[in-house]
Amino acid sequence: MKTSNFVSTASMTHEQWLLERRKGIGGSDVAAILGLSPWRSPFSVWADKTGRLPITEGDNEFMHWGTIMEPILAREFEAATGKKVYRQNKTFFDPEHPFLRANIDRDIAGEPGFLEIKTASEYKSAEWADDEVPVPYQLQVQHYMYVLNRPYVYFAYLIGGHAFGYKRIERDQEAIDTIEPLLIEWWEKHVIGDEAPETDGASATTAALRALYPDDTGEVIDLPGSFDSLLESREQLKSSMASSKETVDAVDNQLRAAIGDATVGETALWKVTNKANKRGARAL
Predict the structure, then answer these.
(1) pLDDT per position in the chain (284 positions), as tens?
(2) Where in the chain are the domains?
């Protein structure tokens, strides 16, 4: 029977915990790596895990209040179910692939399940209706159940600051057998092998590239000839009213990644300027 190993996080500083989180694939990374996260992209995860980005919490007001509400919702779950929950203060990892990791919100006393706690805006209520759970959270807990070798999980959730609920999700071995090999392959190729994933039009990719190349050097570089057709496509996309902004952004991010910290990229037919303005923002 598989048994997970763990690292204690009880005595870690916040910065130490953030550094520890970079050492593997946690639950919040799974949807992003698979291209199914609305908040992060494979490229942004790679830039973070390889230490190319500053260590930040990536926090926002919504996440801040979610953290504040976590112990309150844990107590509400106890009151509603009669179950007792407790913190583990551990990062669990798979013994065969130590970069596959799990940080659960609460364990449940006397049973093999565990508890994840979520808050959501009112306009997200449909994603929690009936037996539904948002896809990124489904992927998160299936990953956790693999690492921990657990059979089920409970979600306790609060919608719009007033509607509390809870539901049980069973282990889906077919999903696990699909997800985990993809995560292993991704980590070995992109983190251990240090090969950047393809850029896309996600806002997280744009933010990561702008953080990687915040300034320009004044250098002019030659771009591959393949960028001629790419830039032609970009012009056509921009001129088409039916074009998707994200498709244009995907082309721009390919250019950002190719130009890096240079100021200008050139092909035989095109010249692309990416000079920083007085406020430090890049043109491209």
Answers:
(1) 667 799 999 889 888 888 999 999 999 999 999 999 999 999 999 999 999 998 875 556 666 777 888 999 999 999 999 999 999 999 999 999 999 999 999 999 999 999 999 998 888 888 898 889 999 999 999 999 999 999 999 999 999 888 999 999 999 999 999 999 999 999 999 999 999 999 999 999 999 999 999 989 999 999 999 999 999 988 888 777 555 778 888 899 999 999 999 999 999 888 898 877 555 555 66
(2) 5-192, 215-273
E strands of the chain, at which residues? 5-8, 85-86, 90-93, 101-102, 106-108, 114-120, 152-159, 163-170, 220-222, 264-266, 271-273
Looking at domain 5-192, its CATH class is alpha beta
Burial class (CB in 10 A: 0-12, 13-18, 19+), 128: buried
The β-bridge partners of 170 are: 152
Q: Which residues contact 253 (CB under 8 A, 6 or more apart)?
A: 43, 199, 200, 201, 205, 206, 209
Alpha-carbon distance of 213 to 282, in angstroms, equals: 9
Identify the CA nearest to 276 among candidates 260, 263, 257: 263
Q: How many CB atoms lie within 10 A of CB 19?
A: 13
Give the tokens for residue 269: 């037919």
Residue written as token pair 């088409």? 240
Tokens read off for 64: 């801040």
Written as six digits, the tokens of 79 are: 């009151």
Which two structure tokens, joined as six digits, stand for 105? 């919100």
Residue 78, CB-side half-sphere exposure with 13 Å CA sphere:
13
Q: Is the dihedral of CA 78, 84, 88, 94 positive or negative?
A: negative
Residues ≥6 apart with Cβ < 8 Å to 58: none
Q: d(Cα 163, Cα 15) in Å, to the nearest integer?
A: 34
